[in-house]
Design a protein that fits this description.
CATH architecture: Roll
Shape: globular
Protein name: UPF0310 protein EOD42_09565
CATH superfamily: ph1033 like domains
CATH class: Alpha Beta
InterPro entries: EVE_domain (IPR002740), PUA-like_sf (IPR015947), UPF0310 (IPR022996)
Pfam families: EVE
Structural class: alpha+beta
Number of strands: 7
Organism: Rhodovarius crocodyli
Family: Belongs to the UPF0310 family.
CATH topology: ph1033 like fold
Order of helices and strands: EHEHEEEEEH
Radius of gyration: 14 Å
Distance between the termini: 8 Å
Strand content: 25-35%
Length: 143
């Protein structure tokens, strides 16, 4: 059975990944991406609009299914070469996290719910994935 994940990145970076059909996490590290398998569902949570910005967003900003293939580094000039995975992104709208906090298993009743998000990528239940997909009005099937 495919697994479900929450990845964390600013909304500007998520939008770039949606436009180009990829995901990356943890400032481009490969190891977290190796935990994800083709067919897994990934929901992006964006705490802010821009990296390091004070422009709080706190919303789910993308939902998609990981394509086949291993993590890779795109061809680029010397310098920053992040690791990525290809993803089929589903149509949907951005959805604030606050209305879901009491229903998501990783946050329900926990005043420190944001702590898990600091890891950049973590697995969630299929029920959490369904709640997020519903809030995003995403056109996808979550098992």
């Amino acid at each position: 059975m495919p697994r479900a994940w929450i990845a964390v990145a600013c909304a500007a970076h998520v939008r770039l990944g949606r436009a180009e059909g990829f995901m990356q996490v943890c400032h481009g590290k490969a190891a977290p991406l190796r935990r994800i398998a083709p067919g897994d569902l990934v929901a992006y949570y964006s705490p802010t609009e821009s990296l390091g910005g004070g422009d709080r967003l706190q919303a789910f900003t993308a939902l998609g299914t990981v394509r086949s293939g291993a993590p890779y580094q795109p061809a680029a000039p010397a310098g920053f070469r992040p690791w990525r995975r290809d993803v089929d992104w589903w149509p949907g709208r951005e959805a604030p996290i606050r209305p879901l906090l009491e229903r998501l298993s990783f946050s329900s009743g926990d005043p420190r719910w944001g702590y898990r998000l600091r890891f950049g990528l973590f697995e969630v239940t299929q029920e959490d994935a369904r709640l997020i997909a519903g809030a995003m009005e995403a056109a996808c099937a979550v098992s």
